[in-house]
Amino acid sequence: EVPPEADPEVPHEHGPDCGHDQGETPRADGDGEEGTVEPEPEVLTKERRAEIAKLMAAKSQGDRMKAVDEIVAEWPKSRQLLEDSLASRSKNVRIAAAWALQRRELGDTSAYVEKRFRDFASDVRMIAVRVAGNRGYGNLEYQVLERATGDPDQIVRSAALMALEQIGTTRCLGGLLISWEREEDTHKRKRY
Questions:
Q1: What are phi and psi of 152, to 5 degrees?
Q2: SS3 of 19, please?
Q3: Alpha helices in 32-153 (DSSP H)
Q4: CA 192 vs CA 86, 112, 116, 166: distances in Å
Q5: Predicted model pTM
Q6: Peptide bond preceding 76: is omega within 30 degrees of 0, i.e. cis?
Q7: Do 71 and 52 touch, CB atoms closer than 8 A?
Q8: Which pLDDT tens digit goes with each residue over 153-177?
Q9: CA distances (Å), 13 to each of 2, 20, 31, 180, in order?
């Protein structure tokens, strides 16, 4: 016996526009009933991915920023390309990708930002703490405080202090006070 949904002559219970005929699966809503149909996530074509990746790897900063704009325009299809760029061996590619995390069109990028705090390039870490502050990622306060008090590079510590002005709470004051007391350079000490 053929089940009713497999028989083209027998209409199934969802109606002709439910998506079953296109190979889509109905999604259950919060009540456990079938709701709207969600198509499978799209990915970039190989050609489009290669085109954006070539821009991202260009020597010109302007081209890399064009690549960032393209990643944002193609979001979320470009997610893997952004992740690959953030993990690139090229510092310049990682810098451009870190700036992409600033873009609100990408949604919550805090998980990506947090990983950039551990990048071996100080420029990438500096961008990451700036993004955390600018995007208001209060959930990263403790990690930004760690950058402000323990990063080996002054450029990152300074950016982290500015980020804490935006997202910091009274919980970070103790750590800042200790760092202020340890700082021997009076010019740098004023930044705390």
A1: -70, -20
A2: coil
A3: 46-56, 61-73, 79-86, 91-100, 110-116, 122-134, 141-150
A4: 30, 27, 23, 14
A5: 0.71
A6: yes
A7: yes
A8: 999 998 998 898 888 767 766 766 6
A9: 15, 11, 18, 69
